[in-house]
Design a protein that fits this description.
It is a single chain. This protein is mainly β. The chain has one domain: Beta Barrel (Maltoporin, Chain A). It contains seven helices and 34 strands. It has a 22-stranded antiparallel β-barrel. It has a five-stranded mixed sheet with strand order 1-6-7-4-5. Strands 2-3 form a two-stranded antiparallel ribbon. It is globular, with a radius of gyration of 25 Å. The N and C termini lie far apart (53 Å).
């Protein structure tokens, strides 16, 4: 069916026709129709001639189950929402967050990119949607996209560090929670919404999205829809890096164009809630469709679909013992087909179905003394997913993963000091099915226990200190246990190990924070030591597949350390002009051998000038990534680069809040290759480009 040898040769040296998805066109038209009566809508909102939307202060809903604002959180949290999120949006979740201190991205071409936090990726970064984990195949392989589209996200919370363990035993790196408000949580009377469209960029993208919420004070209904299309990425030179060509003789082809990097996609959701004075209960359905080329295989594209059903409820002011109860649950049906473009044949199909949810109860404050009151929550979390891989590239067997966990989080304010404690007890089973290729069925179970202790000390009205200590245990994933076959996305024959025990680590981080009006600054180091880190490490051995020898990579448990620092600041230098500074660094070491671990981002330093005066805005940002020459065995170094970007925006004098903007990226037209990317030497980022957009909300 496939010319496997030709495909493998192309991969070792270095996908395209796409379907259009009409499923959500009626919903898109309905949403855009709502925007066709702006004057009436504006008159419903206000009697004034001008409607002004003000971005509210960032409120993190993920970093603390007690619902505190980001300034009061002990763990390091970054919150993106409103206008700032709109201007940062990229095609993938990973690229949208890339550049936030401590966050890089896997960047498997422009269509598949998963966030990396403090050098940790895959299973160690917990990606959630409205507080419930996503069910897809993005952690299995770098070429599998995350089944969340940034176009319809309203807020993203990024929690850095292992103190995020309450949200899942795998969250040793951190948590990314994408919030879309598809289940309304508050009373709404009237109609509100937003629309966004953008055109251009190095991939000639054309995207449009719309969101509408309508309510009568008791029933609130949400609808959203989006569609996107992009062409092959324009790049400033050859796809293959000079370093790779010199190292192994790979010819430098595809000058100016990243072949098979185009994509189409659409999706949408409908949700509703009954809202009350003290809570809500609601449900939603959402669909996600994406069809995109995989850069490493020029004749293969991926047809990905995900359907998700959510229910959620929260009630507060319930009594003197339990004063709040929160319930969240989601069922996901995910399917992903890898298709040979020239023939239309399906080579491999990945399926993942499952349910995940949690029940959380907050207790009333417990008085320890006259001045000391304990505040906290207790929770139950559960998951049951079944993964299947069918076809020629099925390098893992069918597996079922089940986990049940109880967790607790408590806070104790003591004058200027606030202490926190969190603990998690979990039972996880990872069972494989009987298979002629992978052998008889196997059953493995683990009992990970994790806990964290933190403190926030307020020195005065401007300065504070925060620190977290944690112990984290993670059960091995299904592919770390059972992988045994060729994985063409990485060009390796991957082998798991069913003898693995739990992955264990201890971590500490600290931050000094300063805030004075519009000015703020935070900086601090972190250190995480693994006694049994599970890594996919190269071996000197090869395997014969389809007449080709490919390198064998073995999942191995080793001692490892991750240490680094993060810093960011915002300073009002003159009237409406702000100076932004940021930087991060991580150093990851295999302590068993003393070697560097692979795909670790280099030192990055950035600065920006942001101006906003009345309706006009402008910004210039520069990020310099240094050369990464601290590499693992068989890993090429990566040249440094300077990424200069600019943006101008203007709010139109209309009754609706309408803003047009233009973004210029990679103004120096540099050959930008992210060392954290598996494809860095065959897939650079886009060339100098301009993207124009329009956003409106009411």
């Amino acid at each position: 069916m496939k010319n496997r040898t030709k495909k493998l040769q192309s991969l070792l040296q270095s996908k395209s026709q796409y379907k259009h998805f009409p499923t959500y066109k009626p919903l898109i038209l309905s949403i855009l129709t709502a925007f066709a009566s702006p004057l009436a809508l504006a008159d419903d909102v206000t009697n004034k001639d001008t409607v002004t939307k003000i971005d509210l202060p960032s409120v993190a809903v993920t970093g603390n189950p007690l619902g505190l604002g980001s300034d009061d959180l002990i763990v390091p949290v970054t919150v993106l929402n409103g206008r700032e999120l709109s201007l940062r949006r990229e095609s993938t979740l990973g690229d949208t967050l890339d550049g936030i201190p401590g966050v890089s991205a896997t960047h498997y071409g422009p269509n598949a990119s998963r966030p990396i936090i403090r050098g940790l990726d895959g299973e160690r970064v917990r990606i959630m949607q409205n507080g419930v984990g996503i069910v897809d195949a993005s952690s299995l392989s770098f070429d599998h996209a995350v089944s969340i589209d940034p176009l319809v996200i309203e807020q993203i919370d990024v929690v850095r560090g292992p103190a995020a363990l309450l949200y899942g035993g795998s969250a040793v790196g951190g948590v990314v929670n994408a919030i879309d408000h598809r289940i309304p949580t508050e009373k709404l009377e009237g109609i509100t919404g937003r629309a966004e469209a953008r055109l251009g960029g190095p991939d000639s993208q054309s995207n449009v999205a719309g969101v509408v919420d309508v309510g009568n004070g008791q029933l609130a209904i949400h609808a959203d829809a989006y569609t996107r299309k992009s062409s092959d990425l324009d790049i400033p030179g050859f796809a293959v890096s000079k370093r790779k060509s010199e190292a192994d003789g790979t010819p430098r082809t595809n000058d100016g164009k990243l072949v098979n990097s185009n994509a189409t996609g659409d999706g949408g959701a409908i949700g509703a809630s009954l809202t009350f004075d003290n809570g809500y209960i609601g449900a939603s359905y959402s669909g996600f469709n994406s069809d995109y080329g995989t850069v490493a295989e020029e004749d293969v594209h991926i047809d990905m679909k995900s359907q998700r059903w959510d229910i959620a409820s929260e009630f507060s002011d319930l009594g003197s013992i339990i004063n709040r109860v929160k319930v969240r649950m989601a069922y996901t049906d995910y399917i992903h087909k890898e298709i040979e473009t020239s023939t239309g044949d399906v080579g491999t199909t990945f399926k993942n179905k499952g349910v995940e949810g949690s029940v959380e109860a907050s207790h009333a404050k417990i008085s320890l003394t006259n001045n000391l009151q304990l505040n906290g929550v207790l929770g139950l979390q559960f998951q049951n997913t079944t993964f299947e891989a069918l076809g020629e590239e099925a390098f893992v067997p069918t597996t079922n993963t089940q986990s049940k966990a109880v967790y607790a989080y408590e806070e104790l304010p003591i004058d200027k000091l606030k202490l926190s404690f969190g603990g998690r007890v979990e039972h996880t089973s990872v069972d494989s099915a009987d298979n002629a290729t992978f052998g008889p069925a196997q059953n493995h179970s683990f009992n990970p226990n994790s806990y964290a202790f933190g403190g926030l000390y307020t020195i005065d009205s401007n300065w504070s200190l925060a620190s977290n200590l944690s112990h984290n245990e993670r059960a091995p994933s299904y592919f770390e246990l059972y992988a045994n076959g060729p994985h063409l996305a990485t060009g390796q024959f991957e082998i798991g190990n069913t003898s693995f025990g739990k992955e264990r680590s201890n971590g500490i981080d600290a931050q000094v924070r300063w805030k004075d009006g519009k000015n703020s600054f935070s900086a601090g180091p972190y250190y995480t030591r693994f006694s049994s880190f599970i890594g996919l490490l190269d071996t000197p051995n090869t395997a014969l597949f389809d007449g080709q020898l490919i390198p064998i990579a073995q999942f191995t448990q080793v001692a490892a350390s991750f240490k680094g620092f993060e810093a960011e600041g915002k300073f009002n230098v003159y009237d409406s002009l702000d100076l932004l500074l940021r930087g991060d660094y991580v150093r990851a070491t295999n302590l068993t051998t003393g070697d560097a671990l692979p795909r670790i981002a280099p030192l990055r330093l950035g600065a920006g000038l942001h101006y906003q005066k009345n309706s006009f805005g402008a910004r210039v940002d520069v990020l310099h990534a240094f050369e990464q020459n601290r590499t693992a065995a068989n890993e090429l170094a990566t040249d440094g680069y300077t990424d200069l970007s600019a943006l101008v925006s203007y709010k139109l004098p209309t009754k609706l809040n309408v803003e047009v903007f233009a973004k210029a990226n990679n103004l120096l037209n540099q050959d930008i290759r992210d060392h954290a990317s598996f494809l860095k030497d065959i897939s650079p980022q886009g060339e100098r480009s301009i993207l124009i957009g329009l956003r409106s909300d009411f």
